[in-house]
Each structure stands twice: as structure tokens, then as C-alpha cells.
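lol forgot to send this yesterday, sorry. C-alpha cells for the thing we talked abt
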């Protein structure tokens, strides 16, 4: 975190030199902002560069400010520690494990369909499975009161979300780009806007997902845009659900003790903050998927 905003020069394995400002650093990649405001970011995977050098000339205060303030993290810890521990103790471990297995199975199969560029009715059934698994997840979140806790502190959690906060394990267990999910959660608080996605999920039925529009019935095209959008939405729901379940499991089994290693190199923060931000990121991703699913239903 101490290098955020500093000038950097990275020499890649192919001899190319990338110059800019340090935007973020995780266990898997190094992020270089190509402009001082951090609007154009280049990701450089570890093992793909020979050397990195830093300079304190022309430090980017804009990029530096994006790194969460320690006080904001400490204040959030005070708010979350006891209530989150209580909520996690109410989790039904067997049920949350089954829900996680459903999300995982759906995610793997939908990623296969996405790579094959072929979408049939079975693919849409997988989207229904993701939708139904999310209903179960919401029930578990409601029973444990985790939903109210995340909703109550959604804005405060959103302010500290960054790769320096998310648990290290998420970088290895999540199949979609975790950085994209973090960026979405940082930019849009869909949790508050949609009441944890209920604004959309309450209006969607399984038949809406399986329904084939007239244009597709006439053309018999399996890759009709509305189907593609439904698959993409289902993948977001499954991925967000998997991220949410993984962190609920971490918190309820390991407990809110000591500190968790994060995606940031050498980083470790309070487990209550780390787990809550990751759960928030997961639920926010689900909300985005439900939003897309609702739009596909309306033909938007």
C-alpha cells in the first residue's frame, strides 16, 4: 500500500518498458496507471516482468487518495466486529455448503457455454438454477441477519473496498476476474439501490428465463442476443453467489479472530472488515446479474 501513487518503471520480459504510477499490487498482478489520474490502467502479471523501480517525483495524489484510509477501516471494524460475529454464528453450515456447490456447478457449466458460443435451452436451465440458488442464499442471509447488516453499512463498506481489503483466498478460488468485481462494487452500490437484488428478483419467474422470444423462434438462432445476455447474467449471479458463500464460510468456520491475509502484498486487515467487504462485493455482483436478467426479460 505504501507504493500506491508513486512513479514506477517496469521492464517486461520482452524488453518493453512501461512507465506510469502504481495503482495497485496484488499477489497475482501489478497495476500501472498510464496517466496521473488513474483512468487508464495496465495489468502486468507476476512473472511477466524483469524489474520494477520506483520514484517519488510527481506522485499522483489522485491515485493515492483511492487507497482506503486506515481510520475508515478501523471505524468500520468497530461497527461490524460483534454483529457480524453474531450473524455468522447463525449460519446453517450444511445449507450454505449446498448452496455454494450449486453456484459452483452452474458457474463452471455456464463458462463452458460462453466459451463454446452455443446456447441452448439447457444453458438457460442453468441460469434458472443460479436464480433459484440465489433465492436460497437470500433466505439464509435473512435468517442470520447478515442481509440487514450489509445493507445497513453498505455505503461505509463501499468506501473501503479495494484489492488491499479483499481476502487473499478470493484471488485463487474465484473463476471470474476478481478485480472486475471489486471495480463494480466500488463504482456502484447496487445493494442499496436494489435492496440486495430483490427489486429485480421479485419481478422475475423461472419461465421468464426459459422463454424464447418470437424472433428467435423464427430464426432458430441459438446465439440470439437476449439468450447471450441471460447467460452472462446467470454467470454473474453464480460468481457473486460463490464469492459470497466462500466468505460466509470463512467467517463462520474460522471465526472473527486475528487478521486475514488480503490480496495486497503483505496486507492483512481485520477479518470482520475483510469478510464484510468481500460478501458485499459478491452480493453486489449478484445484483448486477439480476439487473441484466430483468433487462433481458424486458428486451432491453
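and heres what i got for the seq, position by position
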Amino acid at each position: 500500500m505504501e507504493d500506491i501513487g508513486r512513479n514506477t518503471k517496469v521492464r517486461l520480459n520482452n524488453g518493453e518498458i512501461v512507465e506510469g504510477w502504481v495503482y495497485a499490487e496484488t499477489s497475482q498482478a501489478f497495476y500501472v496507471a498510464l496517466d496521473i489520474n488513474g483512468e487508464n490502467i495496465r495489468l502486468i502479471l507476476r512473472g511477466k516482468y524483469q524489474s520494477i523501480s520506483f520514484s517519488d517525483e510527481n506522485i499522483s495524489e489522485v491515485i493515492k487518495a483511492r487507497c482506503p484510509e486506515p481510520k475508515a477501516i478501523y471505524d468500520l471494524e468497530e461497527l461490524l466486529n460483534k454483529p457480524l460475529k453474531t450473524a455468522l454464528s447463525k449460519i446453517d453450515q450444511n445449507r450454505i455448503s449446498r448452496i455454494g456447490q450449486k453456484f459452483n456447478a452452474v458457474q463452471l457449466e455456464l463458462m463452458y457455454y460462453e466459451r463454446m458460443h452455443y446456447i441452448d435451452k439447457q444453458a438457460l436451465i442453468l441460469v434458472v438454477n443460479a436464480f433459484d440458488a440465489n433465492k436460497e442464499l437470500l433466505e439464509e442471509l435473512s435468517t442470520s441477519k447478515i442481509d440487514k447488516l450489509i445493507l445497513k453499512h453498505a455505503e461505509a463498506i463501499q468506501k473501503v473496498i479495494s484489492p488491499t481489503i479483499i481476502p487473499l483466498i478470493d484471488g485463487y478460488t474465484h473463476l471470474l476476474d476478481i478485480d472486475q468485481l471489486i471495480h463494480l462494487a466500488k463504482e456502484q452500490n447496487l445493494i442499496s439501490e436494489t435492496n440486495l437484488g430483490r427489486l429485480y428478483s421479485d419481478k422475475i419467474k423461472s419461465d421468464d428465463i426459459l422463454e424464447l422470444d418470437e424472433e428467435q423462434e423464427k430464426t432458430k438462432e441459438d446465439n440470439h442476443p437476449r439468450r447471450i445476455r441471460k447467460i452472462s447474467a446467470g454467470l454473474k449471479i453464480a460468481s457473486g453467489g460463490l464469492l459470497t458463500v466462500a466468505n460466509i464460510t470463512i467467517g463462520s468456520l474460522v471465526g472473527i479472530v486475528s487478521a486475514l491475509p488480503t490480496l495486497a502484498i503483505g496486507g492483512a486487515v481485520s477479518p470482520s472488515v475483510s469478510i464484510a467487504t468481500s460478501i458485499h462485493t459478491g452480493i453486489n455482483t449478484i445484483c448486477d446479474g439480476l439487473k441484466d436478467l430483468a433487462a433481458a426479460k424486458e428486451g432491453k
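The CA atoms of residues 31 and 43 lie 5 Å apart. anyway ping me if u want another try
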